[in-house]
Amino acid sequence: MVKNTNTKPATENDLKTSEDAEVQRNSDWTPPWVHVQIDGVAARAFVGNDGAWSEVIRIEFDGRPPEGMPNPLRTKYFHFPEPGRLCWGHDGAQHDVQLTLDRPLP
Prior knowledge:
Oligomer: single chain
Order of helices and strands: EHEEEEEEE
Distance between the termini: 7 Å
């Protein structure tokens, strides 16, 4: 089992890319991932422009995603009503999102 000893509730700004949204992306562009835990599951995420017209959130899980979440997740329909709480999609699915501030310990 892996335990993270240092996390904090994530906000949209914590996941935002610092890159200019108008920069052209080529085929080998890699998002500026931020390590997070979503409902306790290790993942990487970012908020920004990945080549689409709208700002999106992208999440990729290291393993099996929490129930009700696709892997990967990419949507422009999202918001953080409070730190650590992600709402996404048209049905308002909600998940706990924590920034991983240190490396996982075995």
